[in-house]
Amino acid sequence: MLEQVNLVKELADKHGRRRDSLIPILQGLMEEKNYLTDEAMVLVAKELDISAADVYGTASFYTFMDTDVRGKYVIRICKTISCSMKGKIDVLHTIEETLKIKVGETTSDKKFSLLETNCIGWCHKAPAMLINDTPYTELTPQKVTEILQEYMKL
Amino acid sequence: MSKYSMHLLVCGGTGCRASASDAIVENLKTELEAKGLSDTVQVIMTGCFGFCEKGPIVKVSPDNTFYVQVKPEDARKIVEEHVIKGRKVRELLYVDPKANEVIEDSKHMGFYKKQIRIALRNCGFINPEILDEYISRDGYLALGKALTEMTPEEVIKEIKASGLRGRGGAGFPTGLKWELSRQSQSDKKYVVCNADEGDPGAFMDRSILEGDPHSVLEAMAICGYCIGADTGLVYIRAEYPLAIQRLKVAISQAREYGLLGKDIFGTGFNFDIELKYGAGAFVCGEETALIHSMEGHRGEPTLKPPFPSVSGYLGKPTNVNNVETFANIPVILLKGSAWFSSIGTEKSKGTKVFALAGKINNVGLIEVPMGTTLREVIFEIGGGIKNGRKFKAVQTGGPSGGCLTEKHLDLPIDYESLVANGSMMGSGGMIVLDEDDCMVSIAKYFLDFTVEESCGKCSPCRIGNKRLYELLDKICKGNGVADDLTRLKNLGLVIKDTSLCGLGQSSPNPVLSTLENFMVEYTEHVHDKKCRAGECKALMTYSILEEHCVGCTACARACPVGAITGERKQLHVINPAICIKCGACLEKCKFDAVIVQ
User: Fold this and answer.
1) Pick from B528, B560, B582: which residue ends a domain?
2) At B160, phi and psi to the nearest 5?
């Protein structure tokens, strides 16, 4: 808890305590942990002197700011039409089978979360996914298995 | 660059990087080193060449040899054969799929022949992380010219005369926007670059920022000079990590060289640029929503007026332009408005970058003069449809656009012609569809996108699009009735008329344009319960071919609902009344006896 208090303070010192500092602060928290806890949002609200509901309302608007518990590695597979045309569904099934979770779920060891996302701009190298900040493209069931195995070792 | 007699340009666009272009650069350098050629041949990692279909790409300058699908282990061959012996490595050259001919020079490739590259001029030619390379291609010359030889009014006049219009989709005249921002009186003004690209199928802004970030920074400074702003903000989506990194490098280099910061070129003009990151909300591409997001609020749009040029970021006049729009500015100032306006059509000047995706041979980025026909784009530059299938339609403008069909192939593309035909320019994504794509499903797909990305502020968009989606889903599931088609159209028109922002006003376009152009597919779904493309699972019927069935019972055992009956070693039969069309029998049958119609 104390750690989080300090982190919020640190981020507020860096980005300021104005309204327009809110999103950079939340993004800073996301970098530390892949989702925003209720406690963290309350701390941010206190620090910026705005209501916690306002912080939650802003955070929940953006798909890249999760307010649900997420794993260490968040997999976002593109569900856009150009990826669907190139066999995204088989890749998705492979991920689901490998990790034994469905879209929207997190593995019990809190290591992986699987989400779908709208276009991430890799239409020419479809199908594509992001694992945290790293894009992976031209996926096949085999390629995605290899990628996941690498992450499992980490 | 002059001390080198040859350059090996390796594409460092994210697409090619994902396929090991880092290793190619590494190996080329090692090979050159080993042959003692490091001082005469330079290896450069450039921005995207646009021909992503055949990446990774290595281009040899000055002879324009264009090697495709290069692997790291090919580096030795390129150095030993091409660099040392002067013989081209034939197996790495591009083969024209139509004529089946090897093409040595990129200038003769169908893909490049019809293109004019203005916004993408430096992508694939310079190392985007080295400012000197941008400068060597007249970089920051336009800013220097504007600051030292022209008044802000003269620059705006030049941009107005060029006829440049917003490349983000709406096509608002850029010069006029600058003039309005200039006329607003305020102690503080902002220049904002909208890099929140999110249209499905579009990736040109990412490529420009990754391949030529300085062109955008330079243009933002010119804009700042014109409207009287000293601060620029780039709102970029968090999904583009490489573009963010290149921008950061570019900004710090420009500051180091004094091209950003205080007293630029000793003229007393101050201008600096900061980055703001998006967080995954498509609607933030709308300028008022973008501004709210930068202010730390939910990214919801507000009614215009007031326009951002009067009251924008933090209530101050703000000029918002798209990445591609900015990338055109320096060239216009250097080559003049007369040159720029000589390209294109009467009302749409210059070029447009399109992102080709879907069932097309050459996926990637292209830049063509306005007025180029769809046929030229898809068949000559794009190399036609994949696997020799038949062209069905092209969805332009993403979820806000519509589909264009065979009868539109000879339509010269510009802002007006697309709107007149029920589509729109949008940011320039083109998703090509072939005969295997079901148009009802395509419309449903785009509605699914809009439903998810609608910010929820106004009810036509929030509720109306959801209802549209439900109607389409009902039709795809085989439960559609004749009235649904009228309902789709009426509801679509109401949403268009009554939504608050551009997202809602254009979201029914995919439905309306498919209704217009592919009514027959809709009626087949509704009346005949048939999907000709075979995409709508619920409309398929499964049956067993008598001559192939050996009576192994595998299908009957796999069927989760007991719809298949038959004795051992006897013909099996599927009862369509019970069948849930899950496809389990098809998967299990080893004798190709199960067929789907």
Assistant:
1) B528
2) -60, -45
Domain boundaries in chain A?
2-61, 73-153
Q: Which two tokens stand for residue B515?
A: 């209704």
For residue B276, which residues of chain A lie inside 8 Å, CB to CB? 23-24
Instruction: Kindly give, in sequence order, each residue whose CB lies less than 8 Å from that of residue B232, ignoring residues fewer than 6 positions away.
Output: B190, B191, B192, B193, B217, B220, B221, B223, B224, B271, B272, B273, B274
Residues B133, B365 contacting (CB under 8 angstroms): no
What is the rounded radius of gyration, in angstroms, for the C-alpha atoms of chain B? Answer: 27
Task: Kindly report the number of other CB atoms within 10 A of residue B217's CB atom.
Answer: 29
Strand order in the sheet with A112-117: A112-117, A73-78, A129-131, A134-136
Radius of gyration of chain A (CA): 17
Which chain B residues are Cβ-neighbours of A133 within 8 angstroms? Answer: 241
The domain of B331 spans 131-340
Looking at the fold, whether B25 and B151 belong to one and the same domain comes out as: no
- pLDDT for residue B32: 92
CB B571 within 8 A of CB B549: yes
- The whole-angstrom distance between A61's CA and the closest CA on chain B is 6
Per residue in B370-394, pLDDT (tens digit) is: 999 999 999 989 989 999 899 999 9
Q: Does A67 touch chain B (CB under 8 A)?
A: no
> DSSP 3-state assignment of B11?
strand
Per the listing, tokens 């507000």 go with B302
Distance, CA of B4 to chain centre: 35
Same domain as B519, residue B446? yes
Is residue A65 less than 8 Å (CB to CB) from chain B?
yes
The separation between CA B33 and the C-alpha centre of its own chain, rounded to angstroms, equals 39
Question: Is-contact B511 B402, C-beta < 8 A?
Answer: no
pLDDT confidence of residue B19: 67
Question: What pLDDT score was predicted for residue B327?
Answer: 97
Residue B401 φ/ψ, nearest 5 degrees: -95, -165
Give the predicted TM-score (pTM) of the model: 0.88
Residue B464 CB neighbour total at 10 angstroms: 24
Q: How confident is the model at residue B14 (pLDDT cuts 50, 70, 90)?
A: low
- For residue B351, what is the DSSP state? E
Task: Give the number of other Cβ atoms within 10 Å of residue B216's Cβ.
Answer: 29
Query: Closest Cα partner for A149 from A104, A112, A109?
Result: A112
Tell me how far apart the alpha carbons of residues B401 and B481 are, in angstroms, rounded to a whole number: 26
The ipTM value here is: 0.93
Helices of type H across B151-240:
152-162, 174-183, 204-211, 213-227
Report if residue B566 sits inside a domain: yes
A137/A119 Cα distance (integer angstroms): 13
The answer, for A137 touching chain B at a CB cutoff of 8 Å, is: yes
- Beta strands of chain A (E only): which ranges? 73-78, 112-117, 129-131, 134-136
CA distance B335 to B231: 27
Among partner residues B53, B240, B276, which is closest to A121 by beta-carbon distance? Answer: B240
Q: Residue B169's pLDDT is what?
A: 81
Determine the topology of domain A73-153 in CATH: Glutaredoxin (3.40.30)
